[in-house]
Amino acid sequence: MLSLQGYGPSILQGTLLTIELCLASLAISMVLGITTALAKLSRVRAAHFIANAYTTIIRGIPDLVLMLLLFYGGQVFINQVGPMLGYDDYIDINPFMAGVSTIGFIFGAYMAETFRGAILAVPGGQMEAGYAYGMTRFQVFIRILMPQMVRHAIPGFGNNWLVLMKTTALVSIIGLKDMVRMAGLAAGATRMPFTFYLVVALIYLILTSISILILNRLNKRYSVGILRGES
Amino acid sequence: MNFSIIADNIGIYFFGLKNTLILVSVSLSIGLVFAVPLAVLRTSKNILISGPINAYTYFFRGTPLLVQMFLIYYGMGQFEAIKASILWPFFREAYFCALFAFTLNTCAYTIEIIRGAIENTPHGEVEAAKAAGMSLYLRFTRIILPSAFRRALPTYGNEIIFMLHGSSLASVITIIDITGAARIINSRYYTPYEAFITAGAFYLTITFILVWLLKKLEYRWLAHLRRE
User: Fold this and answer.
1) What are the φ/ψ torsions at residue A191 (nearest 5 degrees)?
2) CB A113 within 8 A of CB A159
3) Using one digit for the tens of pLDDT, what is the confidence trace for B8-35?
4) Is A28 on the interface with B (CB under 8 A)?
């Protein structure tokens, strides 16, 4: 019933690109998220202000609008700055980079909220004990804070990851050859749009299902030794 | 940056605003109306009842809204049966397809939100209702649902914002919502900053108003949890 008319490999290629995109933007969003969370909790007022403005604005604007702004706006920006640096050719933005940086930038804001909550969930006495042992701030962060905040961060992190994966579908709009775009091309050629978009939907479903399985295992792993109330 | 272009074309943004508000409010209302009974059925122990609803929410929560919209807008034309049926005038319209996709999507999320709230009803409340001799129907309408709605409100508020942002996808299938207006301005004048920053400002404003309204609503609905 499900004949892909020879377009299977190209869809698969698109799937690979989608996965690369997911992982690359996840990495960026994690770095941005941690940095922003620490800035939000810092005593430096400027850092605090910038971090709050970043998370509020990003979470108030649709992903698609941000993506179009960064993609088209970035194109204009680079071509304005390029000549100033003595680079005269027209510069095309690599859609992959545009997609990765936009999605990373957007989800950095969501990750920041998750990490902030997780950091606050670690009892302050733990850090104090670390300092009492003479650990530096960095050591306390790596040895005391990080291992304990992971457990509190996993549920929120998991949600963000699932939303991030689905958001990557938007890159097809800015011309990236991800699996949605590939399905669109195949659909146009074969006149079977339903079949191809259904295949893509099912691939997304498989990716999210695998993620949920892994996240559940991680959650279990990091909750070892935590006693729960019994009903 | 030159915002006078925007000032000259602000009409199209307000036209887009109208479409965005219609798409969001209609899909959210229809989605909510269907979600409540389906969420109740979803908590059923009979797998023949809860199974199909579970499959529906799993599919729509696990796939991107964009793909769902494409499946309906582009996909339906693949079937001669639909093309020949009386439904075709609807599925030919981008507006209807967007509305249909958004409704199915938000309904799936809402079902899970309400189900979670129902399942978190304190056991004692249900027991007390049973002890008072209430039927299943009375238990749901008087005890379980009112308290479940209260508990669901904060999460449902997130879903409203999520739908507002999701509605920007309508611009991909030729509908002129706020994002669509920005795309028209950008392609006409090649002014990406002005066009999309204005759209962002529109969305940000709506988001802030919604958050403020939801806070007020929570203040009223969750009055019993207020700490004085």
Assistant:
1) 60, 35
2) no
3) 889 999 999 999 999 999 999 999 999 9
4) no
Q: Sign of the C-alpha dihedral, residues B73, B75, B79, B80? A: positive
Among A107-116, A220-229, B85-94, B166-175, the minimum mean pLDDT is found in: A220-229
- Kindly list the distances between the CA atom of residue B4 and the CA atoms of A62, A81, B17, B24, B196, in Å, as whole numbers in the listed order: 24, 23, 19, 29, 14
Domains by residue range for chain B, with CATH = 4-225 (1.10.3720.10)
The helix or strand, by DSSP H or E, that contains position A23, with its residue range, turns out to be helix A8-41
What does the alpha-carbon distance between residue B139 and residue B129 come to, in Å, rounded to a whole number? 6
Measured between beta carbons, the chain A residues lying within 8 angstroms of B79 are 194
Q: Is B212 on the interface with A (CB under 8 A)?
A: no
Alpha carbons B90 and B85: distance in angstroms, whole number: 10
- pLDDT for B50-67, tens place per residue? 999 999 999 999 999 999
Asked whether the beta carbons of residue B64 and residue A73 sit closer than 8 angstroms, the reply is no
| Chain B residues closer than 8 Å to A229 by CB | none
Q: Is residue A227 helix, strand or coil?
A: coil
Which residues touch B208 (CB under 8 Å, ≥6 apart)?
A60
- The CATH topology of domain A22-177 is MetI-like fold (1.10.3720)
Tokens standing for residue A19: 């996965």
Contacting residues of B for A62, CB less than 8 Å apart: 164-168, 179, 203
Q: Do A72 and B207 touch (CB under 8 A)?
A: no
Contact A73 B200 (CB under 8 A): no
How large is the greatest C-alpha to C-alpha distance in chain A, in angstroms? 70
Token couple for B29? 């209302």
Q: Does A170 touch chain B (CB under 8 A)?
A: yes
> A-contacting residues of B 45-84, CB under 8 Å?
58-59, 62-68, 70-71, 74-79
Q: And the tokens for A102?
A: 């936009």
Instruction: Locate the domains of chain A by residue range.
Output: 22-177
Nearest CB to B74; choose among A73, A193, A204: A193
Whether the CB-CB separation of B175 and B94 falls below 8 Å is answered with yes
Mean pLDDT of chain A: 88
Mutate to test the interface with A, among B17, B61, B168 (most CBs of A within 10 A): B168
Would you mind telling me the total number of residues written for chain A in this entry? 231
CA distance B181 to B202: 11
Residues A123-141 have pLDDT tens digits of: 889 989 999 999 998 899 8
